[in-house]
Amino acid sequence: MSIVIEALIKEKIRAGSSRGVAGIVNSIETLEGGGFLVRRPFPKASFSEFDPFLLLDEMGPMEVGPGEAKGAPDHPHRGFETVTYLLSGDMEHKDSSGHAGRLRAGDVQWMTAGAGVVHSEMPSREFARTGGRMHGFQLWVNLPQRDKMIKPRYQEISSSQIPKATSGDGLVTVSVIAGEAMGQKAVIETRTPIIYSHYRIRAGGAAVQKVPENYNAFVYIVEGEGLFGAEHERAGAGQMIMFAPDGDEVRIENASDAKTTLEVLLIAGVPLNEPVARYGPFVMNTEGEIRQAIEDYQLGRMGAINS
Ligand code: CO
Questions:
Q1: Ligand 1 mean position to 124 CA, how many Å?
Q2: What is the 76 CA–ligand 1 centroid distance (Å)?
Q3: The domain spanning residue 246 has which CATH number?
């Protein structure tokens, strides 16, 4: 980067300025777990990660008939965190350390797989019987090398425990899953600094999220169409906006003539800048550690679910 451009960026950051848009990414559709459809902006062949984030899946929204709900039966994870955020539906979770939980609309499960768990993520028996609307997200957050083999941890936060805020003009609301937004601080603890905000912006509203300049930041559009960044770039549902590291805030607007509420997830974190070796549900730093993870799983060292 030239000295002149670097100086300009530094000047912009000092002024407290809005980040530009570095790129807009379309999602692919793929089948996950026991065969449910997801929309996935990354990873894909051309875009494997957005450090420290490894994957984002949107499950649904879809109407599921009685007896048709699918989930992800017993499978392992090691070396990162899975974050499940449900907007509608009803899921049950069980794992090899004897932990069981249930997620309903608005609830979050932040699972630190660390050294390894085997878990299942399935629709509740009740939801499987009746069917209904299913909509949710799973984000994978990488762990730094020093934390990859820590003891697994679960943080289950019900919708009522998630801090929420509304703007003075009433046009913007936020649910603060991680980090801080609109004066509210999340209750979830993260291993490295993470921001995870769910914004709902009515026509004519604008959200401004503080994001320190050393964070990578993106937005995933859940519903509607919005204007993003300093240049007001337009994008819509299913697209991901990557922001440039050239400012300390991210600006999101819904045009005043918009017909629908704009709904987005804003996700940001400090990049780890460490080598990534990944194979399916294992994310480590070296190929040797991946082989070890596969062996540990095959020999039952990550345990099994007792049901
Ligand atoms: Co899983």
A1: 16
A2: 7
A3: 2.60.120.10
Domain that holds residue 149: 15-273
Distance 218 CA to ligand 1 centre (A): 23
Distance CA 284, CA 292 (A): 10
Question: Is there a contact between 111 and 82 (Cβ–Cβ < 8 Å)?
Answer: yes
Question: Any bridge partners for residue 135, and if so which?
Answer: 88
Q: What is the pLDDT of residue 34?
A: 79
Cα–ligand 1 centroid distance for 129 (angstroms): 23
Q: For the chain, what is the domain count?
A: 1
Say if residues 167 and 205 touch (Cβ distance below 8 Å): yes
The structure's pTM equals 0.93
Q: Tell how far the Cα of 95 is from the centroid of ligand 1, in angstroms.
A: 10
Distance of CA 32 from the midpoint of ligand 1 (Å): 10
Q: What Cα–Cα distance (Å) separates residue 248 from each residue in 62, 230, 263? A: 36, 12, 22
Q: How far away, in angstroms, is 263 Cα from ligand 1 center?
A: 25
CA of 93 to the centre of ligand 1 (A): 9
Per DSSP, the chain holds a count of helices (H) and strands (E) of 3, 26
| Candidate from 3-7, 68-72, 166-170, 249-253 with smallest mean pLDDT | 3-7
With respect to residue 167, please indicate whether it lies within any of the assigned structural domains: yes
Question: Among candidates 169, 178, 144, 202, which has minimal Cα distance to 265?
Answer: 178
Q: Is residue 125 part of a domain?
A: yes
Q: How far is the CA of 119 from the centre of ligand 1 (A)?
A: 6
